[in-house]
Specification:
Helix content: 55-70%
Number of strands: 8
Strand content: 5-15%
Length: about 775
């Protein structure tokens, strides 16, 4: 470990940083390596598209689709309906029915793509030029499909091989240095300016002191356990002992008052801003910059820099004119130091009917009026554009309103967003066409406009990601603000993942049910108008699934873009033909119209199968990447020290009570000799075990104070003492059986985030909040113990 003596003036080292290096933005989202069986299952299911790697020989080979076995996929935990062989058979059936329906309409029916006026065109009067156009359209469509398959396969192969070599390099700990002995009055901008000479700084994360919050949480836990014991004792008392029962009731009420008071104290304490502890993380954007920083500090153990620290006038006194010794080392387990600030939520949720009344209904009125006002112009594309515009505007307003209000959890937000989009599409495209009395005159123009819009969106998707810098923000989301430490990994990956996947399956069933309704009931009432609804349902289907099956690497991201582009071309090709067929059959009055309806139903079945099966395909891919572990498997992975939930060397903690709490089980009493306070030390010091191995006897938590020199100042020692644990309190807690279930309070013991936001109990953040709040409410409620 290297040391730097810093006066009140910190001069910048003269070192130039080169940008020709591995950038932290290149870090894929699946840096957390999944289990080998999951990776094998993923390659196994999609082996027709990718070159898979043989686990025995280690060589890449192209596994034939026809040699796959359903039982092998079942061994990997993949259900039958998610097996790609089953899905691919249905794809073959879809193309077969699609081809039959097209040529059936050519020989016996009408085809409006050639004759835009509703005239009957049979095979007898079909011109050679028109027949050539039809053949050219079909050949070009299947050629694009083949190009899509080859492009995805080549691209995914190349990226998978590159990721295997980069995964070891692209570790956030390799880009980050841990700095201690920073002046407590120092600001982030000063740290950025000082370390920026080595290269571009991606993030500076300060660690704040929150020992008071931890003590308050321990006292609150004692009261909660005391009340639980009182309730259990009350139930065990015989009914004849009325006097004791009354006393117990009085004590329970008294305990309730104490719990409420302590809860108010926690809220008040959480709203405070904690002081800076003098320790921080500095993350560079380039790997070479971090190496240069460590190398320069190693060569100059005692280097004096002279540049004035900019601080508030309150601190510009002689007290801070002393020398500070900054200690810098490589951050091994970066994500352990970035815990999540847990809060409660008391906000009310708005109903779907209010949102529909606020946005969807005005959109219907404006779009319907606009179609009637623009009727004299006679421009069908202009009227169709207004319909698309108002429907898209309503969808945008509804989704943004839900997002910014933050009154739903992540899974509830996604589920409700799906419903809102379906409702806005159905009302925004179906009812305006029905009210305007234009009927089949507009759904072709609407489909063309939406088709062009979908192509533009698909092409601009990668540029949008670059502009918003989603890769860099994703790093902060996974290893910063929204990333849980190892104590909360169980809460994040075990129970909520089941809830999310269950909601995904429910949404797939809803999509299929909506398709059945839209493809059967609506066509029977007003056949031509319903296709505008079908087009928009498909148009937004990928945008919804992109938020569920988020790409975990560059291969999946490219795959998603390519599938969204060519998949929509496939669907619109089928919709275009089927809408024309329905438009003609709607006007036919003879017996020949029955044959048109039969052919149309075949096309409708193909499009519905494609829509539903594509959804299952993406969700099966999502399930393979996020394998749900059982409780026994989860504990086994932790005992094997498998790097499944965090980057770097994981730390083992006591998850027994947390798993029981999340599974809804009753918490048994723990041995009083159990070290319950060790969770606090592990929370603040994943490196404490390393200090014990080295023979250090210091009580410091950070793991860096053991190398302090005797010449350290008093201010530095006082900063370190703030992070030490009171061993007297530790022994008292061990002797008290009220701390048996202290593990349940792990979410409350997290430190502040990098920006030190207030511990507000009015902000909501995802499922771990509601889980914690519900469990505490159940324990406090007397009826839950009867």
């Amino acid at each position: 470990m290297s040391q730097i003596e810093v006066n009140t003036q910190l001069s910048k080292p003269l070192i130039e940083s080169s940008d020709s290096d591995v950038e932290i933005n290149e870090l894929p989202k699946d840096t957390k390596s999944t289990k080998p069986s999951i990776e094998q299952a993923l390659q196994y299911c999609y082996s027709w598209m990718f070159n898979t790697k043989d686990p025995q020989t280690g060589k890449y080979k192209l596994l034939s689709f026809w040699k796959t076995k359903i039982m092998d996929a079942k061994r990997f935990g993949i259900p039958l309906y998610q097996h790609f062989k089953f899905i691919k058979y249905l794809y073959f059936l879809q193309f077969f029915l699609f081809a039959i329906s097209i040529w059936y309409c050519m020989l016996y029916g009408s085809f409006e793509m050639i004759k835009w006026n509703f005239e009957t065109v049979t095979f007898a009067n079909l011109q050679e030029k028109d027949l050539f156009m039809l053949v050219l359209i079909e050949v070009s469509f299947y050629a694009l499909y083949v190009i899509w398959v080859l492009t995805v396969r080549i691209k995914i192969n190349r990226i998978r091989r590159n990721l295997s070599s980069k995964r070891k390099i692209l570790n956030p700990g390799n880009f980050t240095v841990f700095v201690t002995k920073v002046p407590t009055h120092c600001q982030k901008q000063i740290i950025k300016e000082y370390f920026s000479v080595y290269g571009e700084i991606a993030e500076v994360h300060f660690i704040y002191k929150n020992e008071q919050l931890i003590k308050k949480c321990i006292r609150f836990q004692k009261l909660r356990i005391n009340k639980q014991k009182l309730l259990l004792y009350k139930n065990s008392i015989d009914s004849k002992k009325e006097e004791k029962l009354k006393k117990i009731k009085a004590r329970i009420k008294k305990t309730d008052g104490k719990i409420n008071k302590k809860l108010v104290q926690l809220k008040q304490l959480g709203s405070k801003k904690y002081p800076f502890s003098g320790k921080c993380f500095v993350t560079f954007r380039y790997l070479n910059s971090c190496k240069k920083c460590l190398k320069d500090l190693d060569y100059s153990n005692i280097r004096k820099f002279f540049s004035k620290i900019s601080c508030n006038s309150y601190f510009r006194t002689r007290k801070f004119q002393n020398k500070y010794i900054l200690k810098v080392k490589q951050a091994e387990n970066y994500d352990d130091y970035i815990p999540k600030n847990i809060t409660f939520s008391n906000s009310k949720r708005r109903t779907r009917s209010v949102l529909i009344a606020l946005f969807v209904v005005p959109m219907i009125i404006f779009s319907s009026i606009s179609t009637k006002l623009l009727k004299p112009l006679g421009n069908k594309y202009l009227i169709s554009f207004t319909i698309v515009f108002f429907s898209e505007l309503s969808k945008f307003l509804v989704t943004k309103f839900i997002k910014y209000k933050r009154h739903l959890t992540s899974t509830q937000y996604e589920s409700n967003k799906l419903r809102f989009i379906l409702i806005s599409d159905s009302l925004g495209y179906y009812i305006p066409l029905l009210i305007s009395y234009y009927g089949p005159h507009f759904f072709i123009q609407v489909s063309q406009i939406v088709f062009v819009k979908s192509i533009i969106v698909s092409l601009l998707t990668p540029f949008k990601n670059i502009l918003q810098n989603k890769i860099h923000l994703g790093l902060k989301r996974y290893y910063g603000r929204n990333h849980m430490n190892n104590q909360l990994s169980l809460n994040k990956y075990y129970r909520p993942l089941k809830l999310q996947l269950s909601n995904l399956y429910l949404n797939v069933l809803r999509i299929i049910c909506y398709n059945l309704i839209f493809f059967t009931i609506f066509p029977l009432i007003t056949i031509p108008c319903s296709f505008s609804l079908i087009i928009l349902l498909y148009n937004h289907k990928y945008s919804i699934l992109r938020q569920y099956a988020k790409p975990f690497n560059y291969g999946n991201r490219i795959n998603m873009i390519v599938i969204s582009f060519f998949g929509e071309m496939l669907f619109y090709h089928a919709i275009f033909n089927s809408s024309i067929i329905l438009g003609i059959s709607f006007r036919e009055s003879n017996n020949q119209g029955k044959s048109y309806i039969l052919a149309t139903l075949l096309v409708l079945f193909c499009t519905m199968a494609y829509y539903s099966l594509t959804s299952i395909k993406f969700i099966s891919k999502f399930c393979c990447k996020n394998k749900i572990l059982s409780k026994k498997q989860f504990m086994k992975k932790l005992s094997e020290k498998d790097d499944y939930f965090s980057i770097g060397k994981p730390k083992l903690y006591n998850f027994s009570n947390v798993s029981k709490l999340l599974n809804g089980e009753k918490i048994n009493e723990i041995d009083p000799n159990n070290d319950s306070i060790s969770l606090i030390s592990n929370l603040q010091s994943p490196n404490q075990n390393q200090n014990k191995d080295s023979g250090s006897s210091s009580g410091s938590v950070s793991g860096f104070d053991n190398n302090d020199n005797d010449n350290d100042d008093d201010d530095d020692d006082s900063d370190d003492n703030n992070f030490q644990i009171d061993h007297n309190d530790h022994n008292n807690l061990n002797n008290n059986t009220d701390d048996e279930n202290f593990d349940n309070l792990v979410p409350l013991l997290s430190q502040n985030s990098s920006e030190s936001p207030p511990f507000s109990l009015l902000d909501t953040d995802e499922n771990n909040l509601t889980l914690l709040k519900n469990n505490i409410d159940e324990i406090i409620d007397e009826e839950s113990f009867k």
